[in-house]
Write a structure and sequence with these properties.
249 residues, alpha/beta, Rossmann fold, Alpha-Beta Plaits, 2 domains, 6-stranded parallel beta sheet, two-stranded parallel sheet, 9 helices, 12 strands, binds flavin mononucleotide
């Protein structure tokens, strides 16, 4: 079984590749929405696949782990695969600590570099570059798949970057200050399709009078609403108008 979170499709692609269409792939945000939080798993392996945010883990995954009950066998092989735009630093440590509190030991940690979606800071790379990055990611995913099938253990993370502990220690605490929704706004081109409301893992968006309204002060800041809006009508801050949009194809 694979638990995943994905805003823009990278981690979903990774989860699907690893599952080979055989293992069950479960969305943690849907599980939270549907209050489906009890799992008794007899599988030989379970995986957690998710994007790195602020060199840590997304809030929705944190909430899922804190609020769920996951029963596994003592000898179940547990792994994490993080997708990132550049480096993960020590993000896995946060996941490992949370799972340890639940009595679940993580056996192996992997990472895959994919297209970076954090548009408040970076522009989305052009399509040629996206293809190059994601072709390389597919090669990494095949190696990860092999390592998982052999139940390799320990840190198999090739994208930790420099000074991982320090980077996570100083960056991740800022995530909570970056999760405010006040910088989101919608332009006239919005057609009120409701996709943003449906996909928001924080249930922070409501369509009111045909337009999205951010009804919560904070969200995951996953930017799924912005990237997936069919009219590119959702903006965040000053830069997003010219920073491009991305969804894994
Ligand atoms: C809020 C936010 C924070 C991010 N922080 C990091 C980061 O700390 N390090 C990194 O390498 N990539 C970072 N990224 C890039 C994503 O981890 C990367 O693009 C990921 O593959 C997106 O996965 P998804 O398509 O499954 O949502 C960030 C993206 C977002 C939206």
């Amino acid at each position: 079984m694979i638990f995943y979170f994905s805003a823009t499709g990278n981690s979903l692609h990774a989860a699907k590749t690893l599952s080979d269409g055989i293992e069950k792939v479960i969305s943690v945000s849907d599980s939270i929405k549907n209050n489906n939080l009890k799992f008794t798993i007899n599988d030989e392996k379970i995986g957690f696949v998710f994007p790195v945010y602020f060199f840590g883990i997304p809030q929705v995954l944190l909430d899922f782990i804190n609020n769920s009950e996951i029963n596994i066998n003592n000898n179940t092989y547990v792994y994490a695969v993080m997708t990132c735009g550049a480096s993960t630093a020590n993000a896995d440590k946060i996941l490992k600590d949370l799972l340890t509190e639940k009595g679940i030991k993580v056996n192996a940690v992997f990472s895959v570099k994919m297209v970076d979606t954090y548009v408040p800071l970076f522009k989305i790379v052009d399509e040629e570059e996206q293809k190059k990055i994601n072709d390389e990611a597919d090669k990494e995913l095949q190696q990860i798949k092999k390592a998982i099938s052999e139940k390799k253990s320990g840190c198999q993370n090739n994208h930790r970057g420099h000074f991982p502990r320090t980077v996570t220690f100083f960056s991740y605490p800022f995530y909570k200050y970056r999760r405010f929704t006040k910088k989101f706004y919608v332009e006239e081109s919005c057609i009120g399709c409701g996709l943003c409301e449906n996909i928001c893992p924080s249930q922070a968006i409501k369509i009111e009078n045909g337009k999205p309204v951010w009804i919560k002060k904070q969200c995951n800041i996953c930017l799924g609403c912005l990237h997936r809006c069919p009219k590119e009508a959702i903006q965040y801050g000053k830069k997003s108008k010219t920073s491009g949009r991305y969804f894994y194809k």
